[in-house]
Amino acid sequence: MASVYDRFLKQRLSRRRLLAGAGGAAMGTAGLVLLGCGDGGGNGGNGGNGGVTPIAGTPTEASLPRSGGTLTFGSTTSTVFGVDPQTEIALGLLIFPRVYGYLIHQNPRDDTVFFDQAANLETPTESEYIFTIRDDVRYQAVTFPDQPDVGARNVEARDVVATIRRLLANPLVSLPKTLFTEILEEPEARDPRTVYMQTRMPYVYTFEGLGSIFSVIIPEELTDLNVVENLNFGGVGSGPYIVESVNGQEEIRIRKNPDYFRKPVPYVDNMVFRVIPDTGTIEANFRSQAIDAFSPSDALQAERVAQFTSGGHEAIVTESPNLAYVSFGMDVTQPPFNNIKAREAISLAIDREELIEKITFGTGAILGPVNQHLRDGFWALPEDELRRAYGMDLPKEERLQKARDLMIEAGVEGANIELKYPQLTNISAAAVLVQQQLQAVGFQVSLVGESLILWFIQTLRQGNFHATLHAHLPYETPNIPTRYFHSKGVPSTESWHHYANPDVDALIERHWGEFDENVRRATLLELQRLILAEHGPMLNLYTGKNRAAYWSYLKDWKRELPGSMQQYVYDNWLDT
Amino acid sequence: MAIDDTALEFQMDARPRTPVWRLLARLAWRNPLGVLGAVIILVLAFVALFADFVAPYSPSSTEFKAFIGPSGDHLFGTDNLGRDVFSRVVHGARISLGVGVISVSIGSAAGAAIGIVSGYFGGRLDNLMQRTGEIIMAFPALILLLIIVSILGPSIQNVVIAISLGVIPGVQRIVRGAVLSEKQNQYVEAARALGAGNLHIMARHILPNVLALIIILATLLLGFAILIEAGLSFLQLGVPPPNPSWGADLSGEARTYFPDPPGAWWMAIFPGLAISITVLGFNLLGDTLRDILDPRLRGRL
Amino acid sequence: MQTYILRRVLNLIPVLFLISLGVFVLLRLVPADLAEIHAGLYGTEQDIEQLREQFGLDKPMLVTLAWPWEGEFAWPWEGKFWHTQYFEWLGSALQGDLGESAFPNKPQGVTAELLDRLPVTAELLILTLIFTIAFGIPIGIISAVWQNSPVDYLMRGGSILGLSVPAFWLATLVILIPSLIWSYAPPLGYVAFFDDPWANLRQFVPPALILSAGSAAVVMRLARSSLLEVLRNDYIRTARAKGLRERTVLFRHALKNSLIPVLTILSLQVATLLGGTVIIELVFDLRGIGLLTFLAILQRDYPVVQGVALYIAFIFVIVNLTVDIAYAWLDPRIRYG
């Protein structure tokens, strides 16, 4: 526990340093879940950890920030639900940390924790957390139609309690609920400025839950709403921006909060998040500067966009590893997947290099059960070990022959596989390639494409598949990636792959309580070796790169901040 | 085109004075566009039937490098997954024509049956059929088919079902109109006087007389069916991958990879040309058939 | 004339009702309902049940059918019998409230969403119809007047081509090629005609032209053959025999009569064009009702699809009325028939 607490102190120092300078903060180009169009996961992803490489132009550092202007961000994400900070999983989540305040947030690169509305945190035991809330943070002085007036009052402990209560009670909440599964005990407001929280067990991912972008603080008055009339069209927060208008599947506008407690930020007066589903249209609009920034969908588009210049400005394109990834999931209760040799044959038959070459245009990478882009590979197995496990050290023909031999041993030559996949451009392409690769060793593969939403609710959630390609979200810790192999699965109720291995379960549960990072790492590596030897139920295939393009007049658009971190900083500005 | 007296001669005299081949030659000479349509369709039918021999490679094999431009090895280049576009266009003919022919056959047969029965009997059943048909026709076909496919799920079989359903109301309406006027003819009266049953009259007397109409309709509808299939596949609700479908091959990727790099214009051009030429063939042939077999229909179809 | 129009309106009401009912029932056959979609990836069965209740999906679909000894039993004259998904939707629809979208786009619900997008699709449709008529009818007349001349062959060849090229392919090329050569970008967002006519037309003319290619071809072919047929009539021969100038014969006598079948086909083309707007709006990124429909079908957003169905039925009614009135104007016999 000591090490975690040390990090707080260290981080609070650096936070202060960060805010003292004019720069030090940036705005993310992509959100946590369904955003952007990086080529790792089909849903795209956020900037990963690790290095950000400018592939064109020179990112200019801040001189003197200038106030004003409208920043327009284009996104190909066509699914927009709204801006309810607990239920939205698409474009709307870009505005959560900009509109609402939060107690803390966590840097996925090194698991350090930043304070926002929390002034102090005490941890008397490994499962108790006592937050003290700042006394100078006020809610925005606005009221939205059909919502009670909050009255620009101070943020209080009861708001935190009400927020978490809403999160746990609301049937529309999806991902965040999983992050809170082990933090079941309801928080308690000891006085207006003190919140007491207790986790069900010592749990290393508490901060992932409390510090996720879904864990922003909603005023108590607004948490009482009927779930259908939710906060999708706006809500009062305490962040630097106020919701101006929400036009689902089209655009979201936010405007500057003049009373924000950290002056002088924010500098940009208005921000527009615009949906432009077609990759060609978004490129043309970036070229004409109708939008100021977007995420190119692949390496080729990034290369094109990098050539753009207009009106004395140049396009800057950066590339960073993606936290999202793609895997091949199997129902291990059904033949041929109930035979470990058949699973190994599949793992050998899939040509990960071809997938990387043709889908990420050579910019992607293979991965083990945990993405090596997390914390610069701290939690991941070394690449040569992965290559051996996937048979990539063998010549192609030898690898395929080994797969065929295993199929004969398992007696599954010519077995049928029904492969479902969500109809996202990259995933559809991957499905076609995987089908060809499996057929090359003698499986019979039929493809079933489904719209993303149907794939979510009918195929994945109900574990209703023989095999499926899985477009993963950009998870920020090994928590959810490893839960896929637990017999209770990601939602802590059931495994979508119908997989149960007590040894795997034990290792996963053990690492939840290991606060010493090196001990936890050893457990995670042991767990991953065990999973690799099982060849299932989910074979991780590849992860890619995430790209951002913006015009040089957009200053302090700091891409080096990893993952959702980019969304918590507000001092980018327009030099026009 | 003026009323073709060759055609009249052909129709009116069961035992032509001149040999059939010469009549056909004369017909062809007078309808060069129809011949062009027939040639297009014959070539396409040949390509579709012998796709395995015409196409140099498998349409779904991803063995090549991505984005090779048109060349001797790859006439139409390769796509983003390294598949041979020419082989995909060739095999696409099989899917397009197959879906078109099967769905139009089913749809026209069902539509004709409904049209004949409701036109022949008339009355309340007929009235109900007409009202239902009107309402379905008032609804945009593409939107209706999108709903149907989203109920059934995308697969070749379901696309065929959906298009067949879409074809029925139109065929039913036109066939019924023709049956109404056939019914007035004396031969129907005569047959009935001779004690022929309803089924017999419909099958033996009315059907042969509206058959020409149904054939013309089906030819014209084939073009429509192929366009609809392409449209559904373009919207990713039609023929699922990895089946080569011209419409699906034009969506998404074809547009994404058009600009340079990679400048793969061939992905967006060749499948589109294939659709256009095929539909053109059916339209030319259908038009000509209509002029030859039943010039009176010109205003109505 | 008024009674004629009134009679036609009354005839069209059942059509509205039946379309809304038909679509409602069809949509209930779609796998996965609103509650399941809303419950998301991690929702439990309990969550789904709770949402079903909230959306009213636990109610019967059309009428309350139950045995007399069951709790939910009701007679048709009791209100409860009609407290069903369809009739409750219909009741509020009649008051102008089409309900809430599954994916909240507008705080005011589906009605506002449709009204907001209506100008885009309406302008697209009207421009398309203008192009259809402006190209179809004159070319049809020219083709008929110079029958079997090279001009006629050219026009007819062109019209068959127009029928054969898929609109989405044409649209793709029209967007891609200029964007490569002149770095043209279709304008973002909808610009109302009265705000900036030039920007508005730049936005709408290309898609309308592409969409009108097919329908103009249909209209041209029909106008041609219809005029040819009229020109063969005795009264035209008489008029010519009287020594009237060809132009007078054509425009005074022949044209008006030949337009009646053209009107019929135009009214049928409206349904085809409405379907066409789905693809065209998608390709041109026009935020109209076509794109809304496509996304709603894809996302199983029934309240929106139901609203769209009603809107299509309304257009059908308006088009039919216009055509009826035009018939009556073209052919006075109809009014009293």
Core attributes:
heterotrimer, B: 301 residues, mainly alpha, MetI-like fold, C: MetI-like fold, globular
Notes on the structure:
The complex is a heterotrimer of chains A (576), B (301) and C (337). Chain A has 576 residues and is of the alpha+beta class. Chain A has a domain at 322-545: Dipeptide-binding Protein, Domain 3 (Dipeptide-binding Protein, domain 3). Chain A has 16 helices and 20 strands. In chain A, strands 1, 12, 13, 14, 15, 16, 17 and 18 form an eight-stranded mixed sheet that branches. A four-stranded mixed sheet of chain A has the order 2-11-10-9, with no helix packed on it. The model of chain A is unreliable at 1-38 and 41-51 (pLDDT under 50). Chain B is mainly alpha-helical and 301 residues long. Chain B has a domain at 98-301: Orthogonal Bundle (MetI-like fold). Chain B is 72% helix and 0% strand. Chain B contains 13 helices and no strands. The two termini of chain B are 15 Å apart. Chain C is mostly helical. Helices cover 73% and strands 0% of the residues of chain C. The longest helix of chain C has 39 residues, at 246-284. The mean pLDDT of chain C is 82. Classes of the chains: A alpha+beta (576), B mainly alpha (301), C mainly alpha (337). Chain A binds chain C through residues 78-82, 87, 89, 145-146, 171-175, 177-178, 226-228, 230, 232-233, 246-250, 274, 276-278, 280-281, 284-285, 287-288, 290-291, 451, 453-454, 456-458, 460-461, 490-491, 493, and chain C through 31-32, 36-44, 46-48, 50-51, 54-55, 100-101, 103-107, 175-176, 179, 183-186, 188, 283, 285, 287, 295, 298-300.
